[in-house]
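haha ok so turns out i had the wrong file open the whole time. this is the CORRECT one, sorry everyone. sequence first:
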Amino acid sequence: MTRSIERGLALLEVMVALVILGMVAIGYLQLLQVSHTLVLRSRVQAQAVSYAAAGMERAKLELPNLEPKPTELLPDGFRRETTARRWRPGLALLTVMVYQPGGGRFDLVRLVAEPPEARPDSAGSNLRGRR
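then structure:
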């Protein structure tokens, strides 16, 4: 009888060990799932930052034009809106908003100097011929 009790206890020990191992495995899989989600979110955020930086550079090149630009549809479901307005004489406020596919948004705002020909006072245009 003691031999059968020992076998039963050994079987119970193995079952408890399997339950503990299963719980550890489930925790590990949940950790992998959360880390995978974070990696995907960071990739989307990095792509939004890249699109915003590219839009800002293009807005700087087109700076004399302060007209509103239409919304741009970008790859992977991103959208970009660019606005430019005169902030103070000689300065323009550029704003690039990138809308992410999951509903997030990244804004990039910069104050940049307007080129002399775009300034309303255009005092810089008289200095071009002088050296």
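The longest strand covers residues 79-88.
again sry for the mixup
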